[in-house]
Hints:
Blueprint: H1 3-6, E1 14-18, H2 33-44, E2 50-52, E3 56-63, E4 66-73, H3 81-91, E5 98-104, E6 112-116, H4 124-133, E7 139-144, H5 154-158, H6 164-187, H7 189-196
Helix pairs in contact: 2-6, 3-4, 6-7
Amino acid sequence: MTPSETGAQATGPWLVVGLGNPGPTYAGNRHNIGFMVLDLLAERVRDRFRTHRGRADVAEARLAGVRALLAKPRSFMNVSGSPVEALRAFFKVDIGHIVVVHDELDIPFGTIRLKLGGGDNGHNGLRSVTAALGSRDYLRVRVGIGRPPGRMNPADFVLRDFSAPERKELPFLVDRAADAVESLLDRGLEVTQNTFHVSPAKP
């Protein structure tokens, strides 16, 4: 049985990574929703992020009853993989105990989907993580941001802030995504999928 199936019964620490771009310029971008979720998780456990060897901001905590490392790479999104692999090696984390929280263009805004493994679907952050780890077999919490309007370039869309109507819903989405992470660590993938693969989050 894999760690993703057993949840908290598996041994060893968990590494929960939020993907995003560092710095205030990007803080409100759609591409940074992974960082937003990690910030909320750290707030929930009353911990703060500390720089780990200059590669990532890390908070060590008990999350859902298990040891978890909450991490936000200090590199830009497209080269997220190197700090993730450095943390995995330093803390001796099994691939099956890595959870990556990221934005997802191909599911509607407000929707959360979870899976183990798979391709990167054009997401450069995931591509970098997969290449650095040498494996696709890590868990993903995919937070829907929807498709760009009209003919807008997706690369431009993800680097824009959420719209005013979206910002009203955003706290509920981030809260639900954080709940999904905790459920994943506590109850495993299948149960969490059954719980969260439902209609978009509502207040």
